[in-house]
Amino acid sequence: MTTRIFCRVCDGDVEEFVDFGRQPVSNAFVVPGEEDSEYFFPLAVGACSSCHMVQLVEEVPRERMFHQDYPYLSSGSVLMRNHWERTAKSFLSTELTGDDPFVVELGCNDGVLLETIAHSGVRHLGVEPSGGVADIAAGKGIRVRKDFFEESVAARIREQEGPADVVFAANTLCHIPYIGSVLRGVRDLLSENGVFVFEDPYLGDIVDRTSFDQIYDEHFYFFSAHSVRETARLHSLELVDVERLPVHGGEVRYTLAPAGSRTPSEAVAGLLAEEAASGLTLPATLTAFGERVERIRADLRALLTRLRDEGSRVMAYGATAKSATVLNHCGIGPDLVECVVDTTPAKQGRLTPGSHIPVVPADRFGAPYPDHVLLLAWNHAEEIMAKEEGFRAAGGQWITYVPEVRVTGS
Questions:
Q1: Which three-class secondary structure state does DSSP give residue 41?
Q2: What is the DSSP string of 173-230?
Q3: What are the tens digits of pLDDT across the range 328-366?
Q4: Residue 94 — φ and ψ, nearest 5°?
Q5: Which terminal CB of the chain, N or C, has fewer other CB atoms within 10 Å?
């Protein structure tokens, strides 16, 4: 007898369409010798037949993912630092121009966006549960509350600070299974004409590009205009604007407002129509995505096995959270990839979750160069390849797997 899977948004029926098997916590990089202590969970994803929300079938306890030693820093990429600065300046010239404006950011990380707003003198608050990165933000002069944002926390913020003109979240809302509590909190925290703006990986881009490694423990939801519109409606909010973004392999910035307070832009109707035309909400589209994932899995494993058997040296570049999915689902370990180069000190000297490939600092990359590099941080390909021009000049070749397995270089 099949167990019914309930939608975390509307309590509808969720139909699973791809299963990545047993997976580790994606950012839990392992101290050598402590491999036996890892936590694993079944990673599978499905879609609700009622509200169309695509979501993980099983939730990982939030304390296992977001904690004092959480290693990801939002300011680690020049490209992304520029993106956050532009976003902050946009808010300062539009939504934050009134008398004593107030902005709250959910999951502010190391404060890369709020830093610009703080320097402008605008009242702000970051809500960040991961203590280490919250401390970095506070060290920049940013007001930070160490907490998980939910309905009760929102009530306390409003009581202490008053209503917010903007609530913002970037690559955060998709992490939160208890989205109903978050949206009720947002609705109560917003001023009458306030907006909730969030940006997250876009389901349409994940499906189009078969970027299956966007599916990992931290990404519980995979948003589309259809699912966001329905989720907002259930919480007295309305989808009033959308904007496609090129960052992180394709995202959408969604703007929600209290229902009836603003007129939806033409962009909302446009993206809804585009999704309908592409069949994004149809089960057959998602099933086909799962089939393409398995082809990439077979092709990548076959390529790396052949290179090993031919005596080619293969490294990987970027110890990303999403690389946990591709490395573990494809069965890629230190027998196929000798190490992963990464600039994050907290990851160096450790092993990749589940697959146990050593993570080494950047100065190991050119001493000497390998023959091939598996680009795990493919969403930063342009920035990385420009930085590592010496690798290509030395005859090295990059291996990518989105949207298909390719070898490029000399």
A1: strand
A2: GGG-S-HHHHHHHHHHHEEEEEEEEEEEEBHHHHHHHT-GGG-STT--EEB-HHHHHH
A3: 999 999 999 999 999 989 899 999 999 999 999 988 998
A4: -125, -80
A5: N
Q: Which domain, by its residues, includes 315?
A: 285-409
CA neighbours closer than 13 Å in the CB half-sphere of residue 406: 7
> Which string of DSSP letters, residue by residue, matches 71-112?
---GGG-HHHHHHHHHHHHHHHHTTT-SSS-EEEEES-TT-T
Domain end marker among 284, 305, 340: 284
Is 339 a domain residue?
A: yes
C-alpha span between 312 and 307 (Å, rounded) = 5
Strand order through the sheet with 14-24: 14-24, 40-48, 54-56, 221-222
pLDDT of 405 higher than 50: yes
Instruction: Record the tokens describing residue 41, joined without a space.
Output: 């969970």
**Reported pTM:** 0.92
| CA-closest candidate to residue 251, choices 211, 311, 310 | 211
The tokens for 101 are 């404006």
Identify which of 2, 8, 3, 19 has the alpha carbon closest to the alpha carbon of residue 53: 8
Does residue 23 lie within any of the structural domains? no
